[in-house]
Design a protein that fits this description.
Largest sheet: none
Number of domains: 1
Oligomer: single chain
Helix content: over 70%
Structural class: mainly alpha
Distance between the termini: 28 Å
Strand content: under 5%
Length: 101
């Protein structure tokens, strides 16, 4: 059971990028601004972000030059964080629905 507290490096790297993206909007939305959002609206945002990621990945695949590939790959990683954030918001809101008050 102690292994559950050992977080994999890849999960931690994604979580750090997610937090960076979330903090960009803390000023307008607060630390939990998704609380009042409908889960289906959030799911549509996941789909939107996945499409943005798909387009970036196509560009990475077609790109020439190490610097350009590196820049596009970093953009794609941040797009992954955006999509993951919307999934986290759904997960969080569903968790609130599961609470027994």
């Amino acid at each position: 059971m102690a292994d559950i507290f050992k977080i994999r490096e890849s999960i931690m790297a994604l979580a750090i990028d997610q937090e960076k993206k979330l903090r960009e909007h803390d000023g307008d939305r607060g630390e939990r601004g998704w609380f009042d959002e409908d889960v289906m609206w959030l799911l549509h945002r996941v789909i939107d972000e996945a499409e943005e990621l798909r387009l970036l990945l196509l560009n990475v695949r077609e790109c020439q030059g190490a610097d350009a590939i590196m820049e596009l790959a970093q953009d794609a990683r941040l797009e992954c964080a955006d999509a993951a954030n919307f999934l986290m918001m759904i997960h969080d809101n569903l968790g609130d629905m599961c609470k027994d008050d």
